[in-house]
Structures are given as C-alpha cells and as structure tokens.
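FW: tagging you since you asked about this chain on Friday. Here's the raw sequence from the shared folder, copied in full. Didn't touch anything.
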Amino acid sequence: MGNNSELFGLGGELNLGARYRLPSLPLLFLGAQIGYDYSAITASDSLSLLSLDAGAGLTYEFTPKLSASAFASGGVFLAALSSSLGSAWNPLAGGGVSLSYRFNPRLSADLLAGYRYLLGLTSQLTAGLGASYHLPGSAATVRPSGSSGQIEPLRVTPRKKKSQGVDVADVQLTVFPVLFKYYDTKPVGRAVLVNYEKDQIDDIRVTFFVKQYMDNPKECSVPEAMLGRSEAEILLFSLLTNRVLEISEDTKVSANISVEYSIKGKPKKADFVETLRFFNRNAITWDDDRKAAAFVTAKDTTVLKFSKGVAGMIKDTASKALNANLLMGIALHESLGQYDLSYVIDPSTPYVEFSKNKQAVDYLQFPNQTLEFKAGDCDDLSILYCALLESVGVKTAFITVPEHIFMAYSLDLSSEQAAKSFAHPEDLVFQSGNAWLPLEVTERKGGFLAAWQLGARQWREHSAKNQAAFIPLSEAWKDYEPVGFTAPADSLKMPDKDRVVGAYLQEVIKYIDREIFSQKEALVSQISKTGNIRAINKLGVLYARFGRNTEAEAEFRKVLAKAPEDVPALLNLGSIYYLKNDMKTARQFYDRAARKNPSSPSVLLALARVNHEAENYSEAAVAYNKLKSVDPGLAQQFAYLGLSGSEASRAADISKTKEVMVWSEE
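HL: got it, structure written out here
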C-alpha cells in the first residue's frame, strides 16, 4: 500500500506479544509486542523491520470458547536493507481484529488481520495465524447479560470477608410447570457465583438438580475461569420431568447447585441447597403471549374424543363442495354450543387485567379442564378451540388485541383462492399469502356466523391501528411446546348427535344463503334483462360451488338448450354427474366438450379425472400428459393423476385435491 507499495513484494511477519485483562474492566485489555517483518524488494535485496509497540483493545465472547478482539497500538520501528543497516527508529501506528478459539482454559488459536502505518516508509495490510497461552490468574472472557441467556461482566466486589472457597449468591428460582420443556434450553433461574480465593479458579462446571422432578443434574452456563476475588452471573438450566404437571398448588422444594472447579491444578467441589418455588400447573404470565401455546394439548385423549366424535357426527351431512376446514370449524363451534359451553370471566384472574400486567401470574385451563368445567375465560376458550381444531389437522393461531385474546384457523387456501371462493374476503385474515378465518370464541349465543363476523370486525379494527398480533401455533410451539397433561376421557359426555347435526346444517345453510344472495340477485337481474348464456352459466357455477347441485344442473341445461355445444356448460354438467359418481354420463359430456375444444386445459383435466376415477389409467395418462404441456401449473395441482392405484389414492389424500371441482365460467 502507499506511494511506495510497488517496491515491495510478499513477505512474512513474526510477533511475540502479551496482553493483560483489567480486573475491573474485563472487556478491556492492554497489550505490547515485539515483531520482526521481512519483505522482498528485488532479487538481490530485501527489507527487514524490527518493531516495538503497545496499545489497548476490547474483547467479546460469543461462546465460552469463541471470542473476538479489536485493538489499536502505536510504537517505533527500525528498518534495514540486507545491504545496509538502518540508523534511526521511526514511529508507527496500527490496529486490527482477531478471532480466537479456546481449546482449553490455557490454550487458544487465533486468526488475525491488521493494518499498520510506518512513517516515512509504507503502510501494510497483514493477515496471519497465531496461538495464545493464558497464564494462571488471567481474567476469563465474559459476555454481557441479557434475556438470551448470556453472562454479565465479571465484578471484583467480594460479598463476604472470606479468604477462600466459592459461594452461590442472589439465587433467583421460579418454575412454571407448563413450561418444563422450555427450561431445557432457557434459564430456570439465575445466581451469582463468587470466587473468594485470591487466585484464579479454572475448569468451572456448575450443575443444577431437583431430586423430585429431575432424573439427572443439568449443566449450566458459566465462565470457564474467574479471577481471584471476583464474581459472575450464572444461568441455571433444568431438564424437568412431566411429574411437575402433578403440582396443582404452588409449592416450594429444595434444589441443589453443585460447583466444581480447580485452583492451581487441584480439583475442588462445593454444593449449595437453595429453595425453588413451583407455581401450580395452570400458572403463567403474559410477558410473552406465545406461552399460552403450551396449554394447547391437541393430543389429549379428551380433546381427541370430542373432536373425532363431532367429525363422525357430521360426516357426509353437508356438501363436499364447501371448504372442509370451514365446515369443521362450524361443526365444532355448534357442537360446543350444544355441549352448553359458557364464557365466564374469572373474577380472580381476568384476562383484561392480567394481560396488562406482564408479570402478574394468571390461571389458564387446559382443554380437558374447560370441557370438564363447561366454562372458561377468553384465553381458556381460545386454547380449547385451537386444541380441538389442531387435533383434526386444522392449523390455528391466537389473535391478541388490547385486553382480549381470540383465535383463527386456516382454510388451507391461498389469498387468491380465498378471494375467489368467498363473497366477503374482507371477513378473513390474510397472513403470509394464506387465508385464515377469525373466530370470536366468547360469542356463545348467535351461532358460528355471528362469532366469525365479530372476530373479523375486531381483527379489522385493531390491525388497522397496528394493535393486533397474529400468533400461529406452529410457530409458538417452537419455543413453548405443548405438554403432556391429560385426563381420562371416560367422564366426557358428548352432546346429542341429532342436535349437533341440526345446528350444524342450519348454520351451513345460513352461510350459503349469505354467500350467494348478493351474487344471485345480480345474475338473475342480468339474465332477466339479456338472457345472456354466460350469466346463466355463472349462476349455475355459483349454485355448484355451494353444493346446490340440483339448481346448478338446471342452469347448465338452460345454457345447452340455447347453445348445445357450449364448452363451459358441457364441462360443468359433466362435473355434476361426476359428483353423482355417474362416470359414464360425465364422460359423455366431457367428450362432447373435447370435440369442440380438444386443447383446453379444463377439458384435458376433466378427461384425465373421469378416466382416472374409472381406472382407465392409460387414457387418463394421455389426457394428463397433454395437460402438463399446455398448463403445467394446473397439472401440478392434480399431480395424483400421474399415478395409479393405491399410490394415487395416497397422493390425492395428501394433496386434498381429489374432491376439488374446477368449474368453468367462461
């Protein structure tokens, strides 16, 4: 580098240095080094540099073994050509960074990069490898404290007038049983480890153990070494067993903190007994709303008995043309209504108050408890609804707004698909390109549609003000896994099947009427004025999408009466017979459409599907391969058509497309 850089070739550098970590400021170090540099100038001449410099820097530890440093220094150098000696010392200045990996408390390997300016000569960029030996009594590298489980800087203030040993002070231990899986990787508590020895202690290892609720001690986060007369914050971890879920009342137990270390090469050990407070299994704080996900026990036997029982009750009672997740949500809401589930505000721990105080301990019910009590607060009902829907494979999410929590569930539709399928897409929640249905679970009197509209209104109002949080359970479970708290399902008495099915179908009909009313009125008006066959076909498609197949068939036949070879009407009428499982008649209508427009993606899909359903796999393959060439996206959506037999059935079940009908409007 510099004006004379073209004079110098490649060279090498050897440095020997020392650093001293300041006990009161352990992130800061002072250093000095002596170095020798060699650079080729010409084939017959070279430059040698002898340097002395000193400086200061900062060190930061990412992990107990990996650390980084930045430093700046100044000093003097003496330059000499191989043909002559230098006669004067000149100033230098420089700086650099290093990355160090500590193999053990004594030895580390270093990767270095630096810049140095040699006054009157040149400037240099350097890179190299090095090794460091840490003398006994050197300070341990430290990490700043924080919620992510990092250690705060060491301090040198002794707590007691003692001359030897170690102590564990300022112990803070509190356990929420529902989070027992969380504590494996997140701290269950904190403490301060005090070194009263005048010398450094090394090879520090701290374990935490609760006899009644742990199978083995759990190693904790500690520095590898500590200066004499210093202290450091340590993080305590625990791998608790599910026996903690038996704790129904707040209680206190003894916990053992074991400290192992060495001083001047001699191993030492000290044990400390501390008091650990366990809250009851239903306790939680609202400092992180995602914590409620730990209560959503979708595999609980009581939850499964209720959800599977309801799914069995409503099977084949409503049109398969409607969204399956939508129908499942309607069924569960109406069945819980017939089960006499009530919304009751807990006077001792109301969500309205406790959600504002992030450290207040709230009481949440597990789903089986809410089913047993037949009542719950907004948080309890949200947890129950999520558990029931998740247990039948429907994704769910919490929605939190100021002083309230409710839920939403996935429709397994993209935003574009939902916008086409629903007359009122503004009543849905769109997140990451997917459509979700918001449900106000505390609406217990007006039926599913009322609960949906209330949930949609709250979402619109609060999201417009950036006051709504959307928390998918699948994401929340990554930190707060559901626990294995369950109860026998023998005492669960299912609601009467006839009442459930009656309420369910009534709400389905209300939904259909609401969805098609405005669209039907507009199309009927257009048809009465113009007799346009496209409008007639659209009216038939509208009926078909909501399972009103008799009315749909009548409209499609009206089109064919006016235009016997109309391709959309032929395809749609064929699909009506496909739904009736009359593949022969369906094929006849599809063949007529194919003679009119053989390269249409909709025609090719229809032919592939009807032949596949009739197990004419060779003919299905011909149509499907043509479809792949003209519309690869549509072909991919129905990829099961490229398979046969049981393999095709499994693929269709996974993709959930076998019963999806593609209606042709144009």
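FW: The first helix runs from residue 301 to 314.
HL: agreed, and The domain at 166-278 is CATH 2.60.40 (Immunoglobulin-like).
FW: great, closing this out.
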